[in-house]
Queue: 4 jobs
Job 1
Amino acid sequence: MGVKIETADSAVKAYLDGELDHHAAGQIRDEIDLAVGNNTPETLIIDFGEVTFMDSSGLGLVMGRYKVMKDIGGHVVLKNTPAHIKKVMRLAGMDRFAQIS
């Protein structure tokens, strides 16, 4: 699992790639939090377009980043979310905290 971070305007974009499990979640969390801390964006966009597998660690990753963004007055957008991951996120209630597309 990898993550590519881009910053533009008032957003931090995190492009995830591969399997999002407990082995990868910590590193991804740290990289996203560093970018958010350095840029204080209004929006954090997490792109799931290249994610092939996600376990509950992915839900924890999103919830934790939601809390970080809420603390600085920002919000989270989940982009290119595959149907099977989108279903799990909606069942977990993530659509109450983040825009999912």
Job 2
Amino acid sequence: MIRPRPTLPFFRAATLVAALVVSILSGCAGAPPLDPARLAPLPASLELTDTPYFAQERNHCGPASLAMVLRAGGFDASPDSLAPLVFLPARQGSLPLDMLGGARRVGAVALRLEPSVEALFEQIAQGRPVVVLQNLGLSWYPRWHYAVAIGFDRPREVLILRSGPETRQELPLATFDHTWQRSGRWAMIVATAGELPRGISAARYTESLIALERIRRFSEARQAYLAGVKRWPTELPLWVGLGNTAYAMGDLEASEQAFREATVRHPDADAPLNNLAHVLALRGRFAEARAAAESAVALKGPNEDAARRTLEEVLAREAAARPAAITPPE
């Protein structure tokens, strides 16, 4: 099967620093400029008071923060159960890649957010707490820390967090953004399979589902792909992913349907034709498989070599399926 594979950046996580550092930071910058048009549909203030809280032990802010958003999303998770998945003793912290991966390993669709305060507010307004990565130290002495954003008060320019030992921390938006921007404004949310948060791009959504496939969470990925093609019916990677997950689960009929839809919507793409040829051959429909493989080769696209191998495989299967010739007696 053929598909693009995106990559993700990473940062190191560590412990909190003294409140003195935060107080110094609060005087470093004003609140970031925000887009009034994006904020107009949002409430002036909101707090997700039902978000669970787990105290963050030393260097375990990653597992604790992830457990909070997973529990809020309906997943059975705790800092202790997540620590083996996301905490790296050698680094004394958790990498963002591992935070995303840890959420996916319990079946969640883990999504990176657009790096903006507006995106953060939009997700909170949808009822989703957000894991954020801050540098609570200095540029030359970083102290990486995960917290969970659970609310905002726009008139007061305040963000509300579950952070470290604090069940509820009010942080001036200027201070928060100053600590957040050093991580590239990294943030993540979680959703159940089939649930599609507003404000997430098709590319970021697909990136998350490909990652679910990599760890063989095919059932969740398939449900999520189905939701994805309904929202973005012209997105080729989503149709290919839907076909791939159905194939991985042994549902060749659904796999064929997804790849056929992809070829109709994207007739110049060789990947769905190649995959369709493979599935048709497995279903014993060799003439159709040969035609699909030949079409994929004729496109001379980026997957031409794979298409040629598929054509050879189809021809070999077709030959093997022919009845053996009967030699008449002498």
Job 3
Amino acid sequence: MALNKLTNPIMKELRDILSPGGLRTSPEDLTAYGYDAYILEGRPDAVALPDSTDQVARVMKLADIHRIPVYPRGAGSNLSGAAVARAGGIVLCLTHMDRILKIDKDNRVADIEPGVVVADLQKAVEEVRLFYPPDPGSQSVATMGGAVMMNAGGMRGVKYGVTHDYLLGMEVVLPTGEVMETGSRMAKNVAGYDLTHLICGSEGTLAVATRITVRLLPKPEARHTLQAFYPVLDDASRTVAAIISAGIVPCTLELMDRTLIRALEDWFHLGIPTEAEAVLLIEVDGEQAAVDLQAPMLEAFCRDHGAHQVQVAGSAAEREQIWAGRRSAFGALARIRPTCIIEDATVPVSLLPDAVQKIQEIAGKYHLQIGIMAHAGDGNLHPTILVDERDRKEMERMERAFEEIVAYTMSVGGVLSGEHGIGSAKRRFLQMQVGSRALEIMRGIKQVLDPKGILNPGSFLDEEA
């Protein structure tokens, strides 16, 4: 079904719906909101920044009437091209709806608007001794609305899971402009189809979240953080598999290879040994007694499996420095080459060593520089390909390498994405994982909720590659 462009009368209606300054149409704004953290770019006809559910509903109703494409967006930090205006229309940016509405300490629940930054929510709940575990790498800018729609994970996924594990309910606006409540504030709720978790991870294709309810945990009493450096990358990846196999569940278990180590040291001068082939960043949390028991076990585990240096964070400041480095890894790599493409292959943890070796083989085969970082405790690999998108031949090699990584991932029972989503980047591979019938059902669900196809057209459900 063909979609329409914005006309001057529709622009006037949008301006009347939104608060002063809520509609942006300058060339600079249209360019700025025309891309996310992936390499694809688009160009909207307008950017709408609503500040209430009513404004979102009225924008959607107007778009529905005139068949205008709408692209919901948070901070644009997603890495799959899921928030790019591929057909013009309206970018609906929810960052002005950024209030923490309520933190219910007694029931361990928080109500928030979609524009709340993940790190700000974490800080607010920790002030009352509570804990929101999901922590995407872009937590300092990523919004909760984006995290919900992409079902974001992060470094603590190995122990605590991902966004949908904490999502209780939502207020959403449907493509028709209707407002609907899903879920509840209860930890247990089995009334009918689980629409909350259907919409979670839907990448902005089914509805726009305007209020989000999440469950919280008690803040862990203690934490212990260490980093172990390895002269052999394979020893680091085998340590991960051995730790998980032994029944130890760290809060966080991260792997970075030599490319990452050198990039971080070159940028931040942290004093980390650049001769190392790999580093594991490990954190355990929980009751003090349990942490005191696990900490020396993990240190011994690393040394026994080949680590030549183990550094323990002796203070909160040292712990924060370790994690600040890991969170800056993508930025550090991006300084090396003009284009930095971070992938999201996920394999069984027991096969992590084989997967790391395979990626290295593929890098050599196609003469590419690929840095490897991973949420290693759950097998979520982020091979990061460093290229120059202006070099057509290099980009062709990158595409072939990417296809081989996908093929290998599928062959060992892995999945296309552990947390970044499918977006435009991987839509051509989706049927390979889910099958034609499942994809047909997904498109049927989309048709029920969005019969005119105005919400995020060109997404992972689009039939064209």
Job 4
Amino acid sequence: MLTLEFWNVLCTIINLVLLYILLKKFLFGPVISVLEKRKALLEGQFASASEMRKTAMELKKQYETSIHTVEAESAQILQKAREDGETEYRRIVGEASEKADRMVAQAQAAIVEEKEKALKEMESDIASLAVDVAKKILEDDKGGWF
């Protein structure tokens, strides 16, 4: 049967304590140290990732603000271009209308001038015909009257 001896139990306890001390110093210490370093590294990476995320969010906000600013500026530019185009259109139409009015006035003046010229020519022709007719009448009458 099994008997417990004091010295056996004492040696076993001493062996276990020594084993525990050796394992703690040579195995658990380095393993725990590696785990602590790994934990610190992971915490650093998480902190870095968190900081990067914050930076990315700030950049995103800046980007969105820039987009809104650019959209507003482009809307203003388009509105100004429309207004400038409308102004230019009105100016061109006004100039064309003035030019057309001047051309009509010049054409009317030319018509009046041509009409007066034609009337003068007709008066001249009529006067010339009247003189010719009077000469013929006088010639015809000369032979008979005198």
